[in-house]
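Notes on consecutive records. When two proteins share a document, each keeps its own sequence and its own token line. Never mix them. Below: protein one.
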Amino acid sequence: MTLVTIDKENWTEGLAAAADTYRLFGPAKEKDYHQFRELEKGETPDLDLVNTRLSPKALIFPQSEQMLEYSLDESREDHHIMKEVEQDYSPRAVVGIRPCDAKATQLVKLNFDTPDIKDPYWLGAFNATTFIGMACNTPLSTCFCTSAGCGPYNAEGLDILVMEREDSFLAKILTDKGKAFADAAGWNQSSPDQAEAFMAAKETAEAKIVSTIATDNLADTDLLELHGAPFWDDLAFACLNCGTCTFSCPTCWCFDIQDEVHGKSGVRMKNWDSCMFPIFTVHTTGHNPRDTKTQRVRQRFMHKLKYFVEKYEAGIMCVGCGRCVRQCPVNIDIRRVCEQMNSFKPADACAVQS
């Protein structure tokens, strides 16, 4: 681990130099909001924000991605033969990603990179990417990252962690990929004497987190009893099944695969999907094992806060970014749901039934 100081002027010059080697992505203002996208030549990431509405997960896991292409034209020798669509996995860097979103990539990786199955599309993009994180000095009131296995200065999933100061940046080089990017950017002003300043800023930022959740009982609570808890109907009553929570969440990984044909040309595509959508679990027979809103809402929170906890033993499937809290149109709050699940006792269900 190396600490380097980057003057504000050298920050811009360094990114321009790194752009000769890397495709640069970062937050950019689009009308009233920021979103992560590829930066144009000479453009720098707009850091005048706390976080984006949508997470940058789409840079690794696109909302819609072409996988295979084919032709139905029988006059061609290669008709009805699926061919892989060429992907661009050249070196790229995401500059300005928040620690919570970087941590989220590590949770998602548990699903797309297993001993038995490795998703070549997700891994191709992930392995080509260098993650330059921007520490949060002013977290929002809805952020609860410190009790979700993360934090405003959390380094997990990052290659470089950057702290912004009034006239400079202080960067912690964490990995070989991070060092390669720093070398390409010419960021080499070593500042080992700034370690205490970095730690002090971390402690100050963490002290600003005002929202917390408890997760200590989730793993030990009986799964079937929690599945049958009496609060699910009340919780689901207001839900619109709009999917905003899942599309804004950096750790949701559900997708669907569809073929789209225009004329005699076709593509096979991977598209984001959501367990909140009524057709998500519809079988080809027409049967839907999750045909009620309560079942779908329960599935979302049980997956985040129970199934994932038991399967991976890596904490909850949430990094506390607060996006779903801020954007849910009917104010369903994962913090309150987690409290209900974590404090649930089987006796609670018995009392309701009696």
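Protein two starts on the next line and is unrelated to protein one.
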Amino acid sequence: MITQFDSSYVGHVDMENVGYAGTPINDRWYSNEQLLTGLSKAEAQARLMDKLGYGALWMAEHHFQPEGTETLPNIILIAMHLVHCTERLKIGTGFNIVPMWHPLRLAEDYAVADFYSKGRVIFGVGRGYHTREVETFGSPLIDQAANREMFEEGVELIFKAFNNERFSHQGKYFTCPPEIPYRGYALKELTLVPRPQKLPVECWQPIQGGSMRALEFMAKHGIQGMVGGGSAEGGIVQKLVNDWIAAHKKVKGIDLIPGERMAIGFQFHIAKNREEGIREAHKYYEENMKMFGELRLARALTDEQVVAMRDPKTAVTAKLPTLDDAVRNGGFLTGSPDEIIEDLKKLEQRLPGLKRVTVNQPMSLPGALALEQLEWFAKDVMPHFKG
């Protein structure tokens, strides 16, 4: 049963000329003054969500994006500011890109945030999907196997540091501590100072490909899964839910209820009716697709479609994904509040273990309109669900 609604914000400027026929993503270039508005919008959204009764605001770590699309770098640092701007809203650092950190620096930063926020900052991990970001920091992404290895070892090390007063680690990418003399003795163990106050640490990770290896790794470490949320192109795939249940049965020997230990994310746009919602939001959906499709997060796209989206002249004649498709597939909620409530009630029936839903807005949606949509959703949709 759905008891909590969250939302996400990854940082973007208010864009002009959006949609498939609009400015190509690689032709966008904003000034530092414009890029800083992404930080201001995060604060405005957090303040409003806090007043309206949302559960958590989720952010994502990104770097070097003058195109104005994902403009939040150190999300633990930003989370600490947002905690001090709000009273009860939790701030989700979903997701810290583990291969771009030394795992122990990330563990320390989170532990400090956990203390000062009194537990209102939620931990999250991810592998990354921008070569410009991950490879610039000296870690692999083009080599997907190496990226996965580095991510998995980094997460293992983080949880060792969280859960043990003393720990050591010897792996392919990290040796902690190094074998060196220290104050007259041979260094053999380390202690994270400080460690998080509440253990085990609540941790979330996005589910993109949904391989059994990834799902079993998450189950092993007690990591909860977030499905969709802006980059996914549609729908709740029953196979993914079944595989999630199977992974926990195999690794932990527990029987999950469908939807348990998961959060399901949707893009949304409320309007008078479904047709008007599609008409109002289609250009923002298309701009969102231009950004994420190029990065292969919309897995249904062909190479030809990705190339077509780079040029507005070819984009308008190519058979590209439409908002109508996304609504029909169940990945985008639009229409009147009653229509959206009906869709979410059907989701409850399919996934009775689901407690959290994340309602997100397409990349490029103007800040003022985003706040209006969040307020409308809170007033006319959220009261129909317990929590």
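For the record: The radius of gyration is 21 Å.
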